[in-house]
Amino acid sequence: MTTPRADGGARPAVPRPAAPADGLRERKKRRTRQAIRDAAFRLFDSRGYDATSVDRIAEAADVSPSTVARYFPTKEDIVLRDVYGELLVAEVAARPAEEPLPGALRAAALAVSARLSARDLRELRRRARLIRDVPAVRRRTADHHARAAAGLTAALATRTGRPADDLEIRVISTALLAALQEALLRWADGPPRDGAATGARPAGGRGAALETVVGQALDVLLRGLAPSSG
Hints:
230 residues; mainly alpha; Arc Repressor Mutant, subunit A; Tetracycline Repressor, domain 2; two-stranded antiparallel sheet; 10 helices; 65% helix; globular
């Protein structure tokens, strides 16, 4: 099986790391969490973020306000749940042990970008735009970024055999996540093209495929933070 590349070619499909089998309770939690987020994003689109209350989100999701609070302590947390980051940690852990770390990180980020569903992409675009446009969401982003960095640092520490508080590992994790966030914000500024994660699109800039923009951002890191000559 192959998946399309941004340049119109084809490459072997990258299988998603196997997820642990979920019990009935976990599946129900996952459905409830997603129902809350779906309802919230619909309301944010139609009413605006500030005009949407948690009580209104609960009503739209057919759950109680206390259920919303149990899954998402603040309204900002509904927006900021980072599916991309969760998948990235799993993908990094699944890369071949002999693969050099820079290549493994780039391949992991591109693999996640390439296989996001249309629904994932729509949600990711909404998330990025709310981070950009809503001060309360932007302020809360730092807490979520720190948690994501801790998860990625743990995965890199396991991969490299270094302690989780190793400075180089922490710098690598935070630099990678910062680059990805900038790539997501750049991509979200472009026109919505959420039918697929990749395809024949502009080679860079606004309107490019997510995979293309992520690749450009990671190339900066792999060049040692030196800007390109172009």
